[in-house]
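Tokens in:
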């Protein structure tokens, strides 16, 4: 029975991972450490039978105490500042959390497992991103684990720095680490600042869909459940010191993603008259197509043109393959947001933050 410390487990991917792990490995212990920043949501963990410790990954003594008290043998490290646009406007938090915070986690793990420990089996799994590899031209081969790092945003530079530190703690101290670099996730619980949830909620309220530049940037879309299965495979079958790329097998230009999202919304409104009553501001409630909301805005500075993942190593060594098609995954995601209106309304109208202040005063 494993004992997991999951950092950032109240965020989008972390919470999905906690639910996935609890269902697949019910006998294991799962402790979540999360600072509940703007994107962390304690309610994402409801009914997950986990202990949530509200704290900062940069608090090394707290992390060491948690590791000792719960005899943690596996760290799954999601906690990070995750949004590229925010990193452009305010990079400092990204250096603090993604670089210094990750280093603090590594120091804690080394101290408890190697310096005080007896070399017992352990694993430090680091969640990273395909953005560390930079931007591809249309005819370039997809990113493999040996593609040279070339991060272009403060976000990706901070993740690249954290990846290097994780690697160094393996090579220098023998910490048993694995890293997965994955593509763009989508699915339940994603904070509505990222493309898919933001554009969906804008469709429902009749707000513009701001397409950066020409909208021809390409991303590989990975359903979060597939990502969680990839991380699970890396934990169960990955070798210490190794890096694995995890993709969704769905590389698409942004305009195609946006048009597909708009047509799914239109089709759902056409089938269910109650949606027009719930969301009267939606173009789909007024007989107009959702894509009438599309507008072009100034491009993101330094915007990466294309990401694509070569996941042949994960397929061969971890037996990983995405199960969701993009079309089914997007449809299921849109339905999740429609069925969980209270979840996103509480974020949008500030009542979730008031709830955090009432419940986690002094965190
Ligand atoms: P998210 O922003 O939804 O969640 C991040 C979580 O980390 C939040 O719960 C937040 O409260 C917590 N956190 C932030 N700073 C913290 C700190 N100092 N101490 C403790 N907790 C802290 O992000 P996400 O999309 O779930 O991303 C999770 C991880 O996956 C990140 O490392 C990100 O770089 C990586 N990743 C994300 C994607 C994606 O498409 N979302 C793709 C590739 C990699
Ligand atoms: O590739 C993995 C990365 O994917 C993760 O490491 C990041 O944590 C995650 O945020 C995501 O980064 P992106 O920048 O690719 O995701 P985002 O949802 O912000 O944007 C997706 C694409 O859509 C990107 O090309 C920018 C574009 N976009 C985004 C927003 C929010 C728009 O055109 N308009 C928008 O308003």
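Residues out:
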């Amino acid at each position: 029975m494993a004992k997991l410390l999951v950092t950032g487990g109240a965020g989008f991917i972390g919470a999905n991972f906690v639910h996935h792990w609890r269902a697949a490995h019910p006998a294991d212990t799962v402790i979540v450490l999360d600072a509940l920043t703007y994107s962390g949501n304690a309610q994402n963990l409801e009914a997950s039978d986990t202990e949530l410790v509200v704290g900062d990954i940069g608090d090394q003594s707290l992390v060491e105490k948690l590791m000792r008290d719960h005899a943690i043998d596996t760290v799954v490290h999601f906690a990070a500042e995750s949004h590229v646009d925010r990193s452009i406007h305010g990079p400092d938090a990204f250096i603090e959390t993604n670089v210094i915070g990750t280093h603090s986690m590594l120091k804690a793990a080394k101290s408890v497992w190697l310096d005080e420990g007896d070399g017992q089996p352990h694993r430090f799994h680091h969640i990273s991103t395909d953005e560390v590899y930079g931007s591809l031209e249309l005819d370039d081969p997809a990113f493999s684990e040996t593609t040279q790092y070339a991060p272009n945003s403060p976000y990706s530079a901070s993740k690249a720095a954290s990846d290097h530190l994780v690697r160094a703690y393996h090579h220098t101290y023998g910490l048993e680490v694995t890293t997965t670099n994955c593509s763009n996730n989508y699915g339940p619980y994603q904070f509505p600042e990222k493309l898919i949830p933001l554009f969906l909620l804008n469709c429902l309220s009749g707000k513009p869909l701001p397409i950066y530049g020409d909208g021809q940037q390409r991303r590989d879309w990975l359903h979060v459940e597939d990502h969680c299965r990839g991380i699970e495979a890396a934990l169960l079958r990955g070798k210490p010191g190794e890096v694995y790329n995890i993709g969704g097998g769905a590389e698409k230009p942004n305009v195609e993603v946006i048009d597909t999202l708009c047509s799914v919304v239109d089709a759902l409104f056409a089938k269910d008259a109650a949606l027009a009553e719930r969301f009267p501001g939606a173009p789909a409630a007024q007989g107009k197509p959702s894509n009438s909301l599309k507008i072009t805005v100034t491009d993101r500075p330094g915007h990466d043109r294309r990401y694509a993942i070569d996941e042949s190593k994960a397929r061969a060594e971890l037996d990983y393959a995405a199960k969701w098609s993009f079309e089914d995954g997007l449809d299921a995601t849109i339905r999740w947001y429609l069925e969980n209106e209270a979840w996103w309304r509480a974020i949008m109208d500030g009542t979730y933050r008031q709830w955090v202040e009432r419940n986690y005063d002094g965190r």
